[in-house]
Design a protein that fits this description.
383 residues; four-stranded antiparallel sheet
C-alpha cells in the first residue's frame, strides 16, 4: 500500500489532553484557547464528488467556521467552501451527515454539537445545510427542531426525504427537502445507560431505514445486557418498528452487542459492526443478525465505516489507539484480510478512523478522529 496523510490543520498537543484537558475542560475552555479551538479537529465524514474529483469533509471543530471543507485530489490542497458566510455559534461538525442528492446535484449536511446542556437555549439547533458544488452556494434550509442537533442523516431520494438521527434528545426525524415538512418519529433512547444510537443510520435496497435503539428498564440500575437493539422504518412508513433483535454476542453469551455502524454493501443484506469491530450480517426481511467474525480481537478496535469498492470487495479500517489496519471484506464468500497498518511515509500512525470513501480509481480516503495528541488528518490509501 502507498499511504499519505493530508493536514487541514497540524497542531501537536503533546500530553496536554491527559494533563490538562481530560475531565477538566468545558466547552468555554476550548473556545478561549485558539490552539485548541482551531487546531483540534476531527475528520468526521466524507463524500466523494466525482465530477469535481473532490472529497467533501464534515469536520469537528470548536471554530464553527471550519466545519465544512473540501479536498481537491488534483492539487492535494484543502478548499474553503465558504461556510463562514452562514455559520452560527455552536455549529460544531457534520458528524455522519453528508449526502448527495442526484436530482439537483447538491450536497446536504446537518449540524451536530459539542456544547453541553447549559448552552441549550443559546444554541439554535442543528440546521439542514445545502451546498451546490457548481455555484458554491451554501444555504441553511431549516432547523427542524429548535435547540436540537443532528448526528447522522440518510437520504431517501425517491421520496425526497432526509432522515435525521438527533442528539440530544435521541429523536429520529424526517425532513422533506421539497416541502420542508418535518416528522418526528419519536425517541430511540432516553439516555439511561448511555447513547442508544450508533455512528450512522442506513437505508437498505428497499428504502427502509435501519438504526439502533435501547431499552430503558427504569426499574433496574442499568438497561441490561440485551438493551441495544435494531429499529427499522419501512420505506414510506410513518412509524418506527422497534425490533426485539440485535447483534448477538461474539462469544454466544446472553445479550446484544452495542451496534457501532450499519452498512449497505449492495447484496440485499444489511451489515453492521459492533463489539470491538466485529462484523455481522442482518437479514432485512426478519431483522435476524448473524455474527461473522472479529478481525482484531487481541486489543481495542472499532469499525466505524465500510464501503464497497469497484472490485466487489468492501473496505474498512479497523483497530484504534494508533494501530489501525486496512480491512478487505469479501462479503459474498464471508472472508476477510488485513492488508497492513495505516502509517505514512514519515512514520506517523493513524489514530482511529470514523468514515471513509472510495474513489472510482480505487483510492481510499479515510477520516481520522478523536486523536488526543494532534489534529486529525485525511488519509489517502492506494492499494
Amino acid at each position: 500500500m502507498k499511504i499519505r496523510s493530508f493536514k487541514a490543520e497540524d497542531k501537536n498537543y503533546g500530553q496536554s489532553w491527559h494533563s490538562n484537558v481530560s475531565d477538566h475542560w468545558e466547552y468555554d475552555d476550548f473556545k478561549k484557547d485558539p490552539a485548541w479551538e482551531k487546531g483540534w479537529i476531527s475528520m468526521d465524514c466524507a463524500l466523494y464528488n466525482e465530477k469535481e474529483d473532490r472529497i467533501y469533509l464534515g469536520i469537528t471543530c470548536f471554530d464553527e467556521n471550519g466545519i465544512f471543507r473540501a479536498f481537491d485530489r488534483k492539487t492535494g490542497k484543502f478548499i474553503d467552501t465558504g461556510y463562514s458566510k452562514i455559520a452560527e455559534p455552536f455549529d460544531a461538525k457534520f458528524h455522519r451527515s453528508l449526502v448527495k442528492r442526484e436530482k439537483d446535484g447538491c450536497l446536504y449536511g446537518a449540524v451536530a454539537l459539542l456544547h453541553c446542556s447549559d448552552k441549550q437555549w443559546e444554541a439554535p439547533g442543528g440546521a439542514i445545510i445545502r451546498y451546490d458544488p457548481q455555484t458554491g452556494e451554501l444555504k441553511r434550509l431549516a432547523t427542524p427542531i429548535p435547540h436540537v442537533y443532528i448526528q447522522a442523516t440518510a437520504l431517501d431520494e425517491a421520496r425526497n426525504i432526509l432522515y435525521c438521527q438527533c442528539f440530544p434528545p435521541e429523536y429520529v426525524i424526517s425532513f422533506d427537502i421539497e416541502t420542508k415538512e418535518v416528522k418526528n418519529f419519536g425517541l430511540i433512547g432516553t439516555g439511561y445507560g448511555g447513547m442508544a444510537q450508533g455512528e450512522n443510520i442506513c437505508l437498505d435496497k428497499e428504502g427502509s431505514l435501519w438504526g439502533t435503539w435501547s431499552l430503558t428498564r427504569a426499574w433496574q440500575d442499568s438497561p441490561g445486557k440485551d438493551a441495544n437493539r435494531l429499529f427499522r422504518i419501512k420505506a414510506g412508513a410513518d412509524r418506527i418498528d422497534f425490533l426485539d433483535k440485535g447483534l448477538p454476542m461474539p462469544d454466544g453469551s446472553h445479550g446484544f452487542a452495542k451496534i457501532e455502524a450499519l452498512f449497505d454493501l449492495g447484496d440485499g443484506n444489511m451489515y453492521a459492526s459492533g463489539r470491538n469491530g466485529s462484523i455481522y450480517r442482518i437479514n432485512i426481511k426478519t431483522g435476524d443478525a448473524a455474527y461473522l467474525f472479529t478481525p482484531v480481537s487481541d486489543r481495542r478496535s472499532r469499525l466505524a465505516s465500510m464501503k464497497r469498492g469497484n472490485d466487489g470487495y468492501a473496505y474498512g479500517i479497523t483497530g484504534r489507539d494508533g494501530k489501525c489496519e486496512l480491512l478487505r471484506f469479501d462479503f459474498i464468500n464471508t472472508k476477510y484480510e488485513l492488508l497492513g497498518e495505516i502509517v505514512d511515509d514519515k512514520g506517523v500512525y493513524c489514530w482511529q478512523i470514523h468514515d471513509l470513501v472510495i474513489t472510482n480509481d480505487g483510492t481510499i480516503y479515510a477520516c481520522e478522529n478523536d486523536n488526543p495528541y494532534r489534529s486529525g488528518y485525511l488519509w489517502e490509501i492506494t492499494i
